[in-house]
């Protein structure tokens, strides 16, 4: 049986008006240019390609924290590299049983990827145990805290957009004393975060 196409096959008005056809083709033909222009604009936001070596902080060297824990932060991708689009940190955790207070990032999504060791997370009211090779995604504005659950650990921490976490790390590292919980909460607030509860205790 022959297969016939007619005006009802695709429910297209027939005959199609010439001007409408030309207009449709103009829109379709312009799509690659639009996509290319947007891609070029995005590429223009990133100034250059760079490599950060193992065990190296791209900026600031090794950032040694005080108070919250004795962890070391290496900036792998700075917010200044991405026009604030995102930032990536490598954290070497040296304080078993210690971690962050319960807090929120109102404007940033956060991803933790465990490279070594083990960590416990409290996200809202749910507990998660993470070991090497596992990750957790935390949407913005969701209360969370984590605690180091092994003698040593290492994580990659990604924030999108970058926010002011890099500034927070630098401010904590610059302290000449172990800050009180009240001081820590104030520094959180100054860097677009809010402490809303105590640190997570291991069972």
Classification by helices and strands = alpha+beta
Distance between the termini: 74 Å
Question: Order of helices and strands, N to C?
Answer: HEEEEEEEEEEHHE
Biggest pleated sheet: 6 strands, antiparallel
Domain Cupin type-2: 95-152
InterPro entries: Cupin_2 (IPR013096), QDO-like (IPR053146), RmlC-like_jellyroll (IPR014710), RmlC_Cupin_sf (IPR011051)
Keywords: Membrane, Transmembrane, Transmembrane helix
Protein name: Cupin type-2 domain-containing protein
Quick rundown:
This protein is α+β, with helices and mostly antiparallel strands and 203 residues long. The protein is built from three helices and eleven strands. The longest helix has 28 residues, at 18-45.
Describe this structure in words.
The chain has helices spanning 18-45, 165-173, 181-190, and strands spanning 63-64, 72-77, 87-93, 101-104, 109-116, 118-123, 126-131, 135-138, 144-148, 153-160, 194-199. With 203 residues, it is an alpha+beta fold. It has a six-stranded antiparallel β-sheet with strand order 1-2-3-10-5-8, with helices on one face. The protein has a three-stranded antiparallel β-sheet with strand order 7-6-9, with no helix packed on it. The longest helix is centred in the first third of the chain and has 28 residues, at 18-45. The radius of gyration is 25 Å and the shape is globular.
């Amino acid at each position: 049986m022959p297969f016939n196409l007619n005006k009802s096959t695709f429910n297209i008005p027939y005959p199609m008006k010439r001007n409408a056809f030309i207009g449709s083709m103009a829109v379709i033909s312009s799509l690659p240019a639009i996509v290319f222009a947007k891609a070029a604009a995005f590429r223009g936001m990133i100034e250059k390609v760079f490599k950060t070596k193992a065990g190296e902080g791209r900026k600031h060297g090794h950032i040694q924290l005080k108070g919250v824990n004795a962890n070391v932060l290496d900036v792998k991708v700075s917010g200044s590299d991405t026009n604030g689009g995102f930032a990536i940190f490598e954290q070497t955790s040296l304080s078993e049983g210690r971690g962050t207070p319960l807090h929120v990032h109102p404007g940033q999504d956060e991803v933790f990827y465990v490279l070594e060791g083990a960590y416990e997370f409290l996200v809202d009211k749910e507990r998660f145990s993470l070991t090497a090779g596992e990750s957790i995604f935390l949407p913005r504005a969701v209360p969370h805290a984590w605690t180091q659950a092994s003698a040593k650990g290492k994580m990659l921490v990604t924030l999108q957009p970058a926010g002011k976490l890099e500034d927070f790390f630098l401010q904590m590292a610059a302290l000449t004393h172990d800050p009180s919980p009240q001081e820590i909460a104030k520094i959180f607030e100054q860097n677009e975060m809010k402490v809303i509860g105590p640190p997570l205790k291991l069972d």
